[in-house]
Design a protein that fits this description.
Length: about 450
Amino acid sequence: MRSFVLLASLLLTATTFAAKPNVLVIVADDLGYNDVGFQGSKEIPTPQLDKLAAQSVRCTNGYVSHPFCSPTRAGMLTGRYQQRFGHENNPAWLPESTVAGLPLSETTFPTLMKQAGYTTGAVGKWHLGAHPQFHPNRRGFDEYFGALGGGHVYFPGDKGGPEYQIPLNRNGTDEPQTKYLTDQFGEEAAAFVGRHAGEAKPWMLYLAFNAPHTPLQAPPEWLEKVGHIGSEQRRTYAAMVCAMDAAVGGVLAKLEETKQRENTLVYFVSDNGGPNLAARNLTNFTDNTPLRGAKGAVYEGGVRVPFLVSWPARLKPGTYDQPVMALDFLPTALAAAGAADVTPKNLDGVNLLPFLAGEKTGAPHETLFWRSGGPGGNNAVRRGNLKLVRIGTEAPQLYDLGADVGESKNLAGERPDVVRELVAAIAEWERGTVAPIFESPRAGKKKKAK
Ligand code: CA
């Protein structure tokens, strides 16, 4: 009897520790670096995200691999620099194009999670190709509900461009928008989490809000909540952030209610920095303080983002200061699933678990790279605290992010040795990249960093 109890308890322990975690990837769209409470905002209340942050390792040097929407997603969902396969622009909404989308040559995050035994789902913005071959269901997701384009109107019937009016889609079939879109996405995600609770298979859910990306359309109750903000544009944007915060709260509450929170690995990032859209008279409605630049720039304001990793069963909450990138999500999740054997060898991302758990010291990445606009466009490279920025053919700039996170003091003249070294590092990295295989919709207007 005693040995039976012992065996049973050993088995139980083994099961508890071996259980693969669920994986929840939450992506905000165009969220400013300083626009959530846990990043320091005093203007925009985000109690749900702050609660998540308190349960997380907050990565203070957390990056995405691109300063705008679609390429960042292509990197995150492959674990590879998207320039390696030509996905360096936003695909236009071209349902007939077999080129404008995440290349089929690439193996996706959900495809690999399925190989590791997971049920996979995606809710929200896709923006990785309009042709049916690029549909989320064809790219590794068992279930999909969301907006397939680069954005969407928020209230049914609201104003927005044609791409933003495309009907919502569930597993290949159009479906009506029933309410404020952020609420609808939050409820869909919570339903997924509830539906798959207690199943033998773990799940992975990619929840990509289009919020708080323009158009600036917010529900009255949240506008009231941020009535203290004077600027109408910023107030509306802030209310959209609040709505997203509440939607995230709903998903996390469902995780707790179904007793899955402890063993769910949750990531939270924005896909790029807060935008500054002077051409549309939309300026200063997001806040990237203390960073320089905004969406579109390879300065920190374009690519350094709010970045959380939470897995209560494994990771002690705290902060982590070494540079990390959303390319790391995929290999980290596979390692968490005990499925390192299915991890492809050609990834740029690395498994962060031993670093975030404090078992391994040093930097997960020796060097990080950014490029926007193809070869000859804008480059940036970070090695340690030194970051080199090269805007087109202009002379390279060098910053010490340890002393100058705002990239205000150009050290290029003082450190020609480092400039040479980092320019050479870019050249070497670029040998492993290709030219963009499709252009952004507004082709011809080269994105220029501020
Ligand atoms: Ca974006």
